[in-house]
Amino acid sequence: MTDDAPLPPEELERRLRAIGEERYHIHHPFHHLLHGGRLTKGQVQAWALNRYYYQASIPAKDASLIARLPTPALRREWRRRLADHDGDGEHPGGVERWLRLTDGLGLDRDYVTSLRGLLPGTRFAVDAYVNFVKYRSVLEAVASSLTEMFSPDIISQRVAGMLRGYDFVSAETLAYFTPRLTQAPQDVRFALDYVKREARTRAEQEQVMDALRFKCDLLWAQLDALHFAYVAPALPPPGAFRPGTPP
Ligand SMILES: O=C(O)c1cc(C(=O)O)c2c(n1)C(=O)C(=O)c1cc(C(=O)O)[nH]c1-2
């Protein structure tokens, strides 16, 4: 096999999984603290408030991808993701469910949704994701969703660890995560089959792997920003959320 020969699809999948093993945010020190019950309520609030922007931006990135998908079948598949996050008017979607999580932690909804307390690092990382999906190829955009291959593990760890570690967190507060345990594997099955089928050249396969690395990096960067602002050296930038201070 020359360097330019396409990888067998199963080898591409193995390499994608190896990228997650190495780079997924499950390995970030902030997550170890969060899941280990070692943060204060204010630090957990900072995590939830910042992550709201990620949750609220996911439907925007999915909607921009739908506009570029070439077939009804592809658009239908991606439309399901939009409904998962936005709800259908009767059942709440992920964005509303995340707000129930921030409610449960005692944060004011108007303050959370105003984004006034957001860290600049969160904003830049999340916007980079939305722009990546908007401007890169459809193949790279689909590939960038593949971090969801690794999310059921981190979600299971998080829910168990947070229920054990914090008396201010209840199963109801964390209800956001329950449907993700079935939605994420369904999303992944489709996206993984898609990239294995559509990345036909070695160059396209490299683009797929790079897209997954980029996505891991932007998830990591969000936790770096949180760690710097709220754990060590604990220097929240001007205007950012400060635990215990009224908005
Ligand atoms: O809890 C997590 O650590 C985590 C990670 C990810 C991810 O890996 O991108 C997603 C989610 N949760 C999530 O809840 C979610 O809705 C989601 C959508 C996407 C995406 O890229 O389209 N990732 C994720």
UniProtKB/TrEMBL annotation:
Record-linked Gene3D superfamilies: Heme oxygenase-like
Any GO BP: pyrroloquinoline quinone biosynthetic process
Superkingdom of the source species: Bacteria
The entry's keywords: Oxidoreductase, PQQ biosynthesis
Organism field: Siccirubricoccus deserti
Gene Ontology terms for molecular function: pyrroloquinoline-quinone synthase activity
Pathway the protein takes part in: Cofactor biosynthesis; pyrroloquinoline quinone biosynthesis
Name used for this protein in its record: Pyrroloquinoline-quinone synthase
NCBIfam families, per the entry: PQQ_syn_pqqC
Thiaminase-2/PQQC domain: residues covered: 14-224
Job of this protein: Ring cyclization and eight-electron oxidation of 3a-(2-amino-2-carboxyethyl)-4,5-dioxo-4,5,6,7,8,9-hexahydroquinoline-7,9-dicarboxylic-acid to PQQ.
InterPro entries given in the database record: Haem_Oase-like_multi-hlx, PqqC, PqqC-like, Thiaminase-2/PQQC
EC number in record: 1.3.3.11
Similarity annotation: Belongs to the PqqC family.
Annotated catalysed reactions: 6-(2-amino-2-carboxyethyl)-7,8-dioxo-1,2,3,4,7,8-hexahydroquinoline-2,4-dicarboxylate + 3 O2 = pyrroloquinoline quinone + 2 H2O2 + 2 H2O + H(+)
